[in-house]
C-alpha cells in the first residue's frame, strides 16, 4: 500500500517548494492577482468574487514571503508585538475592500459604513502604536511590503560569506581571507561588497506630527462625511488639507530621512492623483474629462479600444468601490 501523506508533510513539502522555486511562485501569484481584474463584470457578483481572488492572492503572497524569510533567517524574531501589529495591519489592508463589499451585499450601505468605520478605527489605533511605541515613521503602505525575493536571497547568500573577509585597522581597506575565497571558476575579481546596515533614528516633532496627520486622516474624513455628506466639497477639502499639512511638515526634513522613507513619501505624493477620482471632484469635473480623453484615444488608435473601452465601462463602478478610501 502506498504510504499516506499527512497534511503536515504536504505543508512541509509546499514550503520547501516555495523556497526552492521563488521565481515560479512569483509568476503564479502575479497571474492569480491579474486574473482578479479579468473576472470583473464577467460573472454574477463579480466585484465580490474579483476581490476575493485578489485578497487570497495577496495573502498567499504574504505567507510565501514569510516562508522565504524563515528559510534564510531562521533565528530572526518575526513574531514580536511590533511584527504582529504590522502583520495584522497588512492583512486588513488586503482584506478591507472584500469585507466592505461582502457586508454591503448582506446589510446594505449602512452595514458597509459600520464595517468601514470599524476597519479604519483598528488601522488608526494600530498605526498609532507603531508611531508612538516603536517610533516608526513613515509607516509603509502596506506595513509589510512585498518581498523583493531575488534581491533578498542574493543578500542573504552574500551574508553567508560575511566571515570570509577582514578590515585593516589603519586604512580601513577590506581584504578577503585566503580560505574564504570562492573557487577560481566562480570568482569575479571585484572588491568585497559589504552590506550597509546603517539606520536613521528620527525623533523630530515635525515628523511625528506629519505622520499623526496622515494616520488620523481617514477617521477625520469619515467624520466629515458623516457631518457634511458623501458628496459635499467640505469633506473632500478636509482630507486634502490634512494631506497638504502632512507633506508640508515632511518636506522640511526630507534630508534627514533615509532612502526607503523618502520612497514612501513619494508614493504618498502620487496619491494626490486619486483626488481627481474622488467625489465630488469626479462627479463634477473629472469624469467627463477622463471619458473624453479615453474616447478620443480609442477613436484615433484602434488598438487602444481594447484598453480604453473597458476602462470607460467600469470607471464609475471602480470609483464607487475604491477611490473613496482615503487610506489608499
Features:
single chain, mainly alpha, 2 strands, globular, 10 helices, 328 residues
Short description:
With 328 residues, the protein is an all-alpha fold.
Q: Oligomeric state of the chains?
A: single chain
The outline comes out as globular
- Give average pLDDT, whole number: 82
Structural class: mainly alpha
Instruction: Please list the strands of the largest sheet in the order they lie side by side.
Output: 1-2
Structure explained in plain terms:
The radius of gyration is 24 Å and the shape is globular. About 0% of the residues have low confidence. It is an all-alpha fold. A hairpin with a 6-residue loop joins β1 and β2.
List the helices and strands and how they pair.
Layout: H1 7-20, H2 22-39, H3 46-72, H4 81-132, H5 149-159, E1 165-167, E2 174-176, H6 205-228, H7 233-251, H8 259-270, H9 281-300, H10 305-321
Helix pairs in contact: 2-3, 3-4, 3-5, 4-6, 6-7, 9-10
Amino acid at each position: 500500500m502506498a504510504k499516506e501523506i499527512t497534511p503536515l508533510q504536504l505543508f512541509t513539502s509546499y514550503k520547501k517548494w516555495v523556497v526552492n522555486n521563488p521565481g515560479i511562485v512569483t509568476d503564479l501569484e502575479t497571474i492569480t492577482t491579474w486574473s482578479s481584474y479579468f473576472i470583473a463584470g464577467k460573472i454574477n457578483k463579480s466585484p465580490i468574487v474579483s476581490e476575493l481572488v485578489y485578497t487570497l492572492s495577496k495573502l498567499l503572497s504574504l505567507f510565501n514571503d514569510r516562508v522565504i524569510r524563515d528559510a534564510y533567517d531562521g533565528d530572526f524574531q518575526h513574531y514580536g508585538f511590533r511584527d504582529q501589529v504590522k502583520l495584522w495591519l497588512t492583512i486588513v489592508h488586503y482584506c478591507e475592500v472584500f469585507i466592505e463589499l461582502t457586508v454591503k451585499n448582506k446589510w446594505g450601505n449602512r452595514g458597509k459604513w459600520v464595517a468601514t468605520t470599524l476597519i479604519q478605527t483598528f488601522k488608526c489605533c494600530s498605526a498609532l502604536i507603531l508611531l508612538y511605541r516603536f517610533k516608526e515613521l513613515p509607516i509603509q503602505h502596506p506595513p509589510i511590503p512585498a518581498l523583493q525575493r531575488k534581491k533578498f536571497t542574493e543578500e542573504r547568500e552574500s551574508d553567508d560569506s560575511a566571515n570570509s573577509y577582514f578590515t585593516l585597522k589603519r586604512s580601513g581597506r577590506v581584504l578577503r581571507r585566503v580560505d574564504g575565497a570562492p573557487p577560481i571558476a566562480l570568482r569575479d575579481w571585484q572588491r568585497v561588497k559589504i552590506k550597509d546596515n546603517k539606520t536613521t533614528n528620527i525623533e523630530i516633532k515635525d515628523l511625528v506630527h506629519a505622520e499623526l496627520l496622515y494616520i488620523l486622516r481617514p477617521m477625520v474624513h469619515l467624520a466629515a462625511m458623516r457631518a457634511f455628506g458623501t458628496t459635499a466639497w467640505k469633506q473632500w477639502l478636509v482630507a486634502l488639507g490634512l494631506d497638504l499639512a502632512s507633506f508640508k511638515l515632511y518636506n522640511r526634513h526630507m534630508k534627514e530621512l533615509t532612502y526607503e522613507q523618502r520612497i514612501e513619501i513619494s508614493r504618498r505624493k502620487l496619491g494626490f492623483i486619486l483626488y481627481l477620482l474622488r467625489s465630488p471632484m469626479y462627479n463634477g469635473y473629472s469624469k467627463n474629462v477622463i471619458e473624453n480623453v479615453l474616447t478620443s484615444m480609442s477613436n484615433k488608435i484602434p488598438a487602444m479600444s481594447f484598453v480604453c473601452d473597458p476602462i470607460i465601462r467600469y470607471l464609475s463602478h471602480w470609483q464607487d468601490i475604491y477611490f473613496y478610501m482615503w487610506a489608499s
